[in-house]
């Protein structure tokens, strides 16, 4: 099953895993040691992150290393940008409207 990046970032633990791994390649045990959850739970989160293409597992000898592939977060950035542009336009229009001198009614 192919998941999307929005599913990956929806969970705070996965966001934290992305943050930890983005600082440098780490083996699975080292990633698991940074969290107060079981290694199995961390492995499930990493599996979802790999399905989303945000993490790649590289085998080196007997160790498996996690590497961040943050390029796929561009999809999230582009999605957010459309709303940023929309709301920036709306707020600028509101500011223009509110800054106009008030006309008194007679």
From TrEMBL:
InterPro entries associated with the record: ArsR-like_HTH (IPR011991), HTH_ArsR_DNA-bd_dom (IPR001845), WH-like_DNA-bd_sf (IPR036388), WH_DNA-bd_sf (IPR036390)
Gene Ontology molecular functions: DNA-binding transcription factor activity
CDD domains: HTH_ARSR
SMART domains according to UniProt: HTH_ARSR
Location of the HTH arsR-type domain: 1-88
Pfam family of the protein (one): HTH_20
Record's protein name: ArsR family transcriptional regulator
């Amino acid at each position: 099953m192919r998941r999307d990046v929005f599913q990956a970032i929806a969970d705070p633990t996965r966001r934290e895993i992305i943050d930890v791994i983005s600082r440098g390649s780490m083996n699975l045990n080292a990633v698991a040691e940074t969290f107060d959850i079981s290694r199995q739970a961390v492995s499930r989160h990493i599996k979802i992150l790999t399905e989303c293409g945000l993490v790649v597992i590289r085998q080196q000898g007997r160790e498996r290393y996690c590497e961040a592939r943050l390029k796929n977060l561009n999809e999230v950035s582009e999605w957010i940008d459309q709303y940023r542009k929309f709301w920036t336009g709306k707020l600028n229009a509101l500011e223009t409207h509110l800054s106009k001198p008030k006309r008194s009614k007679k």
